[in-house]
Specification:
The complex is a heterodimer of chains A (120) and B (108). Chain A has 120 residues and is an all-beta fold. In chain A, 0% of the residues lie in helices and 49% in strands. In chain A, strands 2, 4, 5, 6, 9, 10 and 11 form a 7-stranded mixed beta sheet that branches. In chain A, strand 4 and strand 5 form a beta hairpin. With 108 residues, chain B is mostly beta strands. In chain B, the strands form 2 sheets. In chain B, strands 2, 4, 5, 6, 9, 10 and 11 form a 7-stranded mixed beta sheet that branches. Chain B has a 4-stranded antiparallel beta sheet with strand order 1-3-8-7, with no helix packed on it. Chain B is globular and about 35 Å long. Chain B starts with a strand and ends with a strand. The relative contact order of chain B is 0.34. Classes of the chains: A mainly beta (120), B mainly beta (108). At the A-B interface, strand 5 and strand 10 of A face strand 4, strand 5 and strand 10 of B.
Chain lengths: 120, 108
């Protein structure tokens, strides 16, 4: 069955970096785009951007340009999100989500989420 | 960018009741709309796509409708397991995607 399994919770200090992973199984990884979604505590969902899993090209939403990097380990069917120079406002749960049909569609499978806490 | 305005922000309803949640887009999104359910501590789950298509395995008491800029999610005969937050998402404006702010549904 299709699964997206994300790495475990992270506790970081301001200014540090974090890298979280999303391992896909049950389908051909390079056939479907992967998206990243942020959810701050008690808040709604915010789309961060996506990565073309075939070419490796990332696209970032305006609010996530600069400190955020999407990458792949395609041989391991894994997408990664790295956040550098962490700020308190980066405290959130980060989800990966598979796009059902490439180039403009809904998200049919989601990872379980990774809670990132930034605190001094 | 297309903005999504979702209402109400919260909703209290009784078991067996029919509930409707609305989403308005800032411009025509040509049915490029999905609805997700998120239970506390869990990841969102797809309910409806293309405005009115029921995702596999989703109970038929959930339905979606709308066109243009106005869309709605209806839950018939509310069950206790439907207590959750609900989010709309537009994907017409590829490669920019937008979520509504969410609706928290509680039991009365």
């Amino acid at each position: 069955q299709i699964q997206l399994v994300q790495s475990g919770p992270e506790l970081k200090k301001p200014g540090e970096s974090v890298k979280i992973s999303c391992k896909a199984s049950g389908y051909t990884f390079t056939d479907y785009a992967m998206h990243w979604v942020k959810q701050a505590p008690g808040k709604g969902l915010k789309w961060m951007g996506w990565i073309n899993t075939y070419t490796g090209k990332p696209t970032y939403a305006d609010d996530f340009k600069g400190r955020f990097v999407f990458s792949l380990e395609a041989s391991a069917s894994t997408a990664n999100l790295q956040i550098s120079n962490l700020k308190n406002e980066d405290t959130a749960t980060y989800f990966c989500a598979r796009e059902a049909i490439n180039y403009g569609s809904y998200f049919d499978y989601w990872g379980q989420g990774v809670m990132v806490t930034v605190s001094s | 960018d297309i903005q999504m305005t979702q209402s109400p922000a919260s909703l209290s309803a009784s078991l067996g009741e029919t509930v409707t949640i609305e989403c308005r887009a800032s411009e025509d999104i040509y049915n490029g709309l999905a609805w997700y359910q998120q239970k506390p501590g869990k990841s969102p789950q797809l309910l409806i796509y293309n405005a009115n298509s029921l995702h596999t395995g989703v109970p038929s008491r959930f339905s979606g409708s709308g066109s243009g800029t106005q869309y709605s999610l209806k839950i018939n005969s509310l069950q206790s397991e439907d207590v959750a937050s609900y989010f709309c998402q537009q994907y017409y404006d590829y490669p920019q995607y937008t979520f509504g702010a969410g609706t928290k549904l509680e039991l009365k």
